[in-house]
Amino acid sequence: QARPPDKPVVAMIGTGTLAGTFGPAIGKAGYAVVYGSRDPARAAVNELVRRTGPRASVASPREAAARAAIVILA
């Protein structure tokens, strides 16, 4: 049986209210999510990454966009 293709990486540029709603939902749907943050070490950003799931990470906005096939400005 054929294995379904891997889902593309999604960059969520921003870590505010919109990203906090959509990012975890996208992560729960099986996508890898990379947040683009001006302050990747901030505790609230790390909590958002944790809530998003095991395939979530954080980087600078530029690096997040470069790593992703889909970019959402949040």
Task: Please name the defining characteristics of this protein.
4-stranded parallel beta sheet, 22% strand, 74 residues, 4 strands, 3 helices, globular, alpha/beta
- Please compute the radius of gyration using only Cα atoms: 12 Å
Q: Fraction of residues in helices?
A: 25-40%
Q: Would you report the number of β strands?
A: 4
- Structural class of the secondary structure composition? alpha/beta
Q: Low-confidence runs (pLDDT<50, min 5 residues)?
A: none
SSE ordering: EHEHEHE
- Report the principal-axis shape: globular
Query: What's the N-to-C terminus distance?
Result: 38 Å
Q: Report the mean per-residue pLDDT as an integer.
A: 95
The number of helical runs is 3
Relative strand content: 15-25%
- Which strand order spans the largest sheet, edge to edge or round the barrel? 3-2-1-4
Question: Major sheet: size, sense and barrel closure?
Answer: 4 strands, parallel
What topology emerges from the helices and strands here?
Layout: E1 10-13, H1 17-28, E2 33-36, H2 43-52, E3 56-59, H3 61-67, E4 70-73
Parallel strand pairs: 1-2, 1-4, 2-3
Helix pairs in contact: 1-2
